Amino acid sequence: MLTTLRDLLRYNIEFRIGAILVGMVAVIAALSFVSPYSPIDTFVVPPDLPPTLAHPFGTTSRGQDVFWHLTFAIRNTLAFGIVVAAISRILSLAIGLLSGYKGGWVDRVLMSINDTFIVIPLFPILVLFYFVLRDHMSWFALAMIMALLGWAYDARLIRSLALSLKAREFTHTGVFSGMSTREVLVREHLPYVMPIVFATTMNNMNWSIGLEVTLSVLGFTDINSPTIGGMIYWANQHTALVAGVWWWIAFPVVVIILLFIGLFLLAVSMNEHIDPRSRLRRLGAGGGP
Amino acid sequence: MMAPLLGLSHVSKIFGATGPLGRRRVPAVSDVSFALQAEAPEIFTIVGQSGSGKTTLARMILGMEAPSEGSIRLAGNDIGHARGARARRLFMATVQPIFQNPFEAFNPLRQLDYYLFLTARRFGQARDQRQAQTSADVALRQVGLSLPEVAGRYPHELSGGQLQRAAIARALLAKPKLIVADEPVSMVDASLRMSIVNLFKTLRDELGISLIYITHDLATAYYISDRILIMHEGVVVESGDARTVLADPQHPYSRQLKDAVLVPDFAGTSVVHDTMEMSGTQRPL
Amino acid sequence: MMTAAALPSDKKCVASGQPATAVLQVKGLKAYYRTRHFGVEREVRAVDGVTFEVRSNEIYGLAGESSSGKSTLIKAIAAAMRPPLEIVGGTVAFAFVPGGKDLHQATSAEVAAIRWRKLSYIMQGSMSVLNPVRRVRRSFEDFAAPHLGGTGASFEARVREHFALVRLDPNVLDAYPHELSGGMRQRVTIALATICRPDFVIADEPTTALDVVVQKDVLGMIRNIQREMGSSLLLVTHDLGVHAYVTDRLAIMYAGRLVEEARTPQVFASPQHPYTRHLIASLPRIGDAAPRAGLAGAPPNLASPPSGCRFHPRCPLAGDRCRRETPSMTVFAPDHRVACFAVSGGTA
Fold first, then answer.
1. Would you say C210 and C181 are in contact if contact means Cβ atoms under 8 Å apart?
2. Closest chain A residue to C86, measured at CA
């Protein structure tokens, strides 16, 4: 695993750039632990100051240092994206692999449930949840809801892969060697499915973070635990752009864009590396006479 | 009388395709019956071109498809009723497959000794890794390989012939009574083909394993078969003792098949004998 | 003595000693795959010094198994090379390339000019040539019309005339590929490849994917077309039965090099190279149940091939010299070359 990462860093420019970008964002998030200001305090510094040495990203109209507030915001947003991605990956993998491999009524039942989830309009549902759970809405609750709503598309994708893997002869060899269904899925099929899972993970993170930012901007989340979307929300509440306090919006947006691009580059470069076909090429099989 | 090792009775397989105006029924296999006896191991060949139904028949015998009509019985038990893990295990301890593409038979991302050890542990009564390694080595030697040659290797590091032999070794580890081989040598180089075909004969003669050999190649069919079944579009057109049928086929399709075989005959048989003497000095494989 | 089944009566023989012009001359061709993945460099010597020529009005067969390098050789001859495959040495010269220059030195305009009109290909999978969502006629228009002066009445007439020549039903033109059987599709592909009456056709495993009954038909069609057009055909396949049926001369390839080349009847009647002899002896035949042996060992790894003669690890006649030196093709008999120390010199 480590040699893989080292190889990627050394030879793959996309991976390097992606890693640097995500690394920068992760460092910013980590700095939240040494922040001199607590994120929920307001008016701890003079408001509306443009970027200076003392306050490198300026201060908000609520008297918070943009930089330090951003460290918390990005930490929460990142954690949110990771939780959603992790849980929904597990769901879509389990359902997709099982459905594709088993076929028959298992497939039909699971896919009916799947398609129902695909059809559900996400945004209105999320807004509905907000109104129902209003006081109990935390980013963790939102993460769970989104994870439970975000697995359906990718489950179908994984299912189609599972269908083609089922037809390959090494699956039958595995079965006739005594493997149980679980063993076949995990040991034989998973390596082939991982590249897709990786691509969908980055996609999923971008989607969940984007949705969270949207909801926060509109005020539909816990506005007290800081997230990127929350910052933009507050900035809008104080009509920051009109008031000329551009740094309040600009820096969160820039950081989130860096994160998106970094994740995308990582996904693309790791995919090429993990993809069984390119792995085989590197091992020396395939291609050639 | 003991139940036959394998008995097919009026087996048919119909695939239903739904067209815009109702279902079209495509009979892939129609009314096939034959039986293999346990006391007399033999090589039973099914010959056909693409679309003849031979692969569908193989899949039904291996339990991968269920027959639409008729029954397939293994040692008296109907295969279709083998539900549940235990019944499936028992079934697989009796019947094992060899597939056409040796490069696909094993997961390209995995070292192939993994499958050997697994089969030894699940079917071969090996209790731990050391016993599994011993069993694997024994099975590999039976097919002309050995564990040191194969251990730790990935499929792409071996030739088609070696891979196919490894696949046979894996099948042997389950100690089956019947092996179903679907075009086992069609994707193997001509120079390596005969060693595998000869191996099938050895399995029958020394280990008492019956083989259902599915192929489109009449020449290798003649070389090793005891009995033969010729299929065309799902129906058996001719069957019987292999040498007799192939030497003088009766059915028009069988004749057509035999005529189409390209025979490189330019001289007398002196060439064959010359070369046989020469290759007699090599390690026989 | 030749049996009727193997040598149809219209097969012509090139009498040895008769001067024949070469349409293709390959000299010392070397083509390697050079890859670099994550800092690991590999060089696969797929074609390592191949010399032969194809004469006018003949079918020249090239036989080889997996890792013989024959597919790479075709790519090099057809100027269809892409990195990581590179020509490392040697020349490929067609008689119809202006100035007789090496095909790889020719400009892409010159190469485009000879494609289809002078040089065409018949590939293994007919589906990769025929567009599945368009009728056959459209494929002809796409491929051949630019070379025959556009679509229109004269083009249509030309196509029908060609179909009559190859004995294909012209109604096939209006069908979609999936409506035709595999054999039919391959015949359409062959008609497509030959409609401009090229001087040289490369056929790569043209009948491998077909049923035995259809195969004989299609091979007959290939042979007839060659006779009618008088062009040269390079037929590459691993199936020796196919070579016996249609080719005039046959070369055997092993591990990137030629090991034997002779007129086809000679190759089967008196093969000299140990590899050829083993190949031919191990062919099973209906009516002959005598035991046959497979060849020991495994095909060589072209990234690190054996030293000296590449066949020596598996050769029953191998001697010290075979391990040290590489045999070159020497003349054994008129029109019969062999690369083997046991045949030409000593193996000590």
1. no
2. A288
Say if CB C116 and CB C201 are below 8 A apart. no
At A217, is the secondary structure helix, strand, or coil? helix
Q: Can you tell me the distance from the alpha carbon of A40 to that of C204, in angstroms, rounded to the nearest whole number?
A: 73
Q: How many helices (H) does chain A have, and how many strands (E)?
A: 14, 0
Residues of C in contact with A281 (CB under 8 A): 35, 37
H/E segment holding residue C153:
helix C153-165
- Decide which of A279 and C332 is more confident: C332
φ and ψ at residue B149, rounded to 5 degrees: -70, -30
B86 by Cβ neighbours in 10 Å (0-12 / 13-18 / 19+) ranks as exposed
Q: Do residues B183 and B216 lie in contact, with contact meaning Cβ atoms separated by under 8 Å?
A: yes
Residue C167: CB atoms within 10 Å: 12
CATH code for B40-279? 3.40.50.300
Task: Quickly state the pLDDT bin for C14 (edges 50, 70, 90).
Answer: very low
Q: What is the pLDDT of residues A99-110, one digit of tens each?
A: 998 888 899 999
- CA gap C28, C73 in Å, rounded: 12
> What are chain A's partners, defined as 3 or more CB pairs within 8 angstroms?
B, C
Which whole-number Å values give the CA distances from B256 to A13, A183, A248, B231, B249, in the listed order? 61, 47, 84, 13, 9
What are residue B36's phi and psi, to 5 degrees?
-115, 135
CATH fold for domain A2-32+65-283 = MetI-like fold (1.10.3720)
Q: Are A289 and C302 within 8 A, CB to CB? A: yes
CA atoms of B125 and B131, how far apart (whole Å): 9
Give phi and psi for B118, each to the nearest 5.
-60, -45
**Interface with B, mutate which of C68, C212, C317, C343 (most B CBs under 10 A):** C212
CB contact under 8 A, C284 and B195: no
Query: Which long-range contacts link A107-112 to residues 24+ away (Cβ below 8 Å)?
Result: A107/A159, A110/A155, A111/A156, A111/A159
In this complex, which chains have at least 3 CB pairs below 8 Å with chain B? A, C
Q: What is this structure's pTM?
A: 0.81
Q: What is the dihedral of CA B181, B186, B188, B189, to 10 degrees?
A: 150
CA distance to partner chain B, nearest, from residue A85 (Å): 27
Helices and strands in chain B: count of H runs, count of E runs: 11, 10
CA C130, C131, C136, C137 dihedral sign is negative
pLDDT digits (tens, 9 = 90+) for C244-264: 999 999 999 999 999 999 999
Domain ranges of chain A: 2-32+65-283
Is pLDDT of C194 > 70? yes
Q: Which residue of A has its CA nearest to B169?
A: A177
**Whole-number Å distance between alpha carbons of B123 and B112:** 17
Which two tokens mark C246?
């249609």
Tens digits of per-residue pLDDT, B12-71? 998 875 555 556 677 889 999 999 988 889 999 999 988 888 999 999 999 888 888 898
pLDDT over 60 at C9, yes or no: no
Residues in chain A, pLDDT under 50: 286-289
Length of chain B, please?
285
H or E segment and range at residue C44: strand C40-55
Span C70-99, pLDDT tens digits: 989 998 888 778 878 888 888 888 888 777
